[in-house]
Amino acid sequence: MTMGDGTGRDTAIDDRPAIDPPAWFVEQANVSDPSVYDAFEAEWPECWDRAGELLDWDDPYDAVFRGDERPPFEWFPGGRLNASYNCIDRHLPERKNQLALIWEGPLGDATTYTYRELYREVNAVAAALRDHGVEADDVVTIYLPMVPELPILMLACVRLGVVHNVVFAGFSADALAERMERTGSELLVTCDGYYRRGSAVAQKNKADNARIAVDQDVSVVVVERLGLDVHLGDGYYDYEALRATHDGAEVDPVPRAADDTLFRIYTSGTTGEPKAVDHTTGGYLAHVAWTAQSVLDIKPGDTYWCSADIGWITGHSYIVYGPLSLGTTTVLYNGTPDHPEKDRLWELVERYAVDVFYTAPTAVRAFMKWGEEHPAGHDLSSLRLLGTVGEPIDERAWRWYREHIGGGECPVVDTWWQTETGAILVSTLPGVDGMKPGAAGKPLPGIETGVVDPAGEGVSEGEAGELVVTRPWPGMPDALRTGEDWGAAAARGEEWRYYPEDGATIDDDGYITVLGRVDDAINVAGRRFSTMELESAITGVTGIAEAAVVGADHETTGTALYAYVSAEDGYTEADLRERIAEAVTDAIGGVAKPEAVVFTPDLPKTRSGKVMRRLLAAVANDDPLGDISALRNPEIVGELQSATPDS
Ligand code: PRX
After folding, report:
1. What count of Cα atoms within 13 Å lies in the side-chain half-sphere of residue 315?
2. CB distance 562 to 619 below 8 Å
3. For residue range 274-320, what is the model confidence (pLDDT) as tens digits?
4. How many angstroms separate the CA atoms of 355 and 303, rounded?
5. Which range (196-205, 267-276, 355-364, 584-593) has the least confidence?
6. Mean pLDDT across the stretch 522-529?
7. The pLDDT of residue 606
8. d(Cα 81, Cα 152) in Å, to the nearest integer?
9. What value, to the nearest 5°, has the Cα angle with vertex 512 and ends 509 and 513?
């Protein structure tokens, strides 16, 4: 059966046969018994003990879950643990000389840390932070690119019970300042600069500007990466000097209650403001460890590589906390996939004999475009499992990935989750389930989801609806756990449910195909941006009267940002174009620059004056326009169509 979802994607997956994982994979898989689904169902919520048991607890929990049909919910109440201990100390007896981190830089430079070395570094940095006066529950902001100091600082913070707030290094000074101000964070760690695509980025300048912009007093610790010998004025500290002073120090990990905050991360919500998501120490870590084990099939001693950036949730969960809690070797790559050559990633997979590789569909589509000769030139036979995350992967890209990276043999897991869920909720279990290219899979054992119509009723197979999560899960964030964030959902139905704001279909095997966001967030290359944030940056440009940003299908990044703008009289397009790019770069970062800026005399509006985004999205995608009878200015449509470049 084929049905259109308005996005031009083929959703005809219902009767596609599933591809079974190969026997050699199943034999060695961490989870290979199909009864795992029934066992979790029969024993919910105690089934989640299986995740709790993956961790070492200072105080055992009294119960796996406490709660009723509605929030508040508690996961592992009574339990106390420390995440740094779980990711480092407990592995020392067996694997102190095993690599914990492999860091590979953009210029072919590399550094490794064994678990013992990581222990030493994290303790020294934790001692330095403690001496600086940082205490449990304080928030430290970390604004670093993919360098070893980033996970080291995260683990040093959580060792002290300090909450880290990692801000993606590509974000602008304004975006950093806004996030720091919201958390009241008084300590910022950044670096002098770093290399990206062969050029130096002056990171400290951005941090300096953010420091000036916030109301609170902020101390800044600077990691020297480029040897720029930057001037450290009052309130600035040199990371290396602090670390060296405390080298050899040992800091007892501070036991934290299971629902104490482990970290804060900002994402794009439906408003124009960044949305803080706080994850818990016990539930989050247990969920991440369990999914790293069952879905990503990570084993202690594996070399595992997730090519995301730690600045986003994927890196928190599946570069740092998941793999390290399981005692594996995690690869950190500070570079781009095509620099210096387009086989850079495959050269690294070969060199480090990577077992499991996890990336975004955008990257897969880029590999596909560059050509199969790049991976073909390398021995990728160490790979056992491939994964994707962040956006839908179409069938063609999925098959290409399996064929040309996975040697036609590796299972590919398409993992659905989000910043708010903390860890994977929907996927296949690679040692159990057949895979359907294009569909993410079923809710994992213990997870309950549905696809519903606007009235909240389940849709029939193949029909598009909204994805809902209908039972609490251990990695749920604080606002959902406590019920603070339940207002909108409560208004939509009697029962507690979480709406992730994704459209989806479900087939008769219960496999879910995720179609994309249904709110005003746009996912570009697996990164989430808010249209409101973008539009307010654009309308901040003098000469711009109005702006509306929509997503257009894009061959590589899945979706591209198209900005439709109307200008005031007396301004030239070329000048405004440049200033729009600058304004977005300043407000958010270069990563959010629109692919196309389309000038129009007016935006399409309903009679009540509301911008008709649906129409703009249809124009951007060259899709049928649908019903435009509510449009006040239909004469604008032809102009919009001719001014829009092909997506
Ligand atoms: O729309 C879904 C998409 O990414 C959104 C979450 O974005 P973010 O919180 O930035 O986290 C990205 C990394 C976990 C979701 O609401 N998304 C994520 N994974 C998939 C996906 N869409 C389709 N298939 C996926 N596997």
Report:
1. 25
2. no
3. 899 999 999 999 999 999 999 999 999 999 999 999 999 999 999 99
4. 5
5. 267-276
6. 86
7. 78
8. 19
9. 125
Q: Which atom of ligand 1 is nearest to the CA of 312?
A: 10
H-type helices in 197-330, by residue range? 203-213, 239-245, 282-294, 313-315, 322-325
How many whole angstroms from 432 Cα to the centroid of ligand 1? 23
Mean pLDDT for the stretch of residues 516-529: 85
| Ligand 1 atom 6 nearest Cα | 418
Res 7 pLDDT > 70: no
* Model confidence band, residue 2 (pLDDT cutoffs 50, 70, 90): very low
CA dist 76 and 482 (Å) reads 14
Does 589 sit in the ligand 1 pocket, CB within 6 Å? Answer: no
Beta strands in 453-587 (DSSP E): 465-469, 502-506, 512-517, 521-524, 527-530, 544-554, 558-567
Among all chains, which residue has been given the structure tokens 């389940």? 458
Compute the residue count for the chain: 647
Q: Render pLDDT for 599-613 as a digit per residue (tens, 0 to 9).
A: 999 899 877 777 888
- Mean pLDDT (the chain, rounded): 92
- pTM, two decimals, is 0.91
- Name beta bridge partners: 332: 103
Q: Which domains, from first to last, does the chain contain?
A: 521-643 (3.30.300.30)
Q: Which residues contact 99 (CB under 8 A, 6 or more apart)?
A: 112, 113, 114, 115, 303, 329
CA pair distance 532, 420, nearest whole angstrom = 19
The pairing of beta strand 99-104 with beta strand 329-333: parallel
Q: Is 291 in the pocket of ligand 1 (CB under 6 A)?
A: no
d(CA 565, CA 281): 44
Read off the pLDDT band of 15 (50, 70, 90): low
Is 604 touching ligand 1 by the criterion CB < 6 Å? no
Q: Which has the closest alpha carbon to 420: 316, 553, 524, 291?
A: 316
Does the beta carbon of 397 sit less than 6 angstroms from any atom of ligand 1?
Answer: no
Backbone angles phi, psi at 584, to 5 degrees: -70, -40
What's the rounded mean pLDDT across residues 94-114?
95
Contacts of 542 (CB under 8 A, 6+ apart): 571, 579
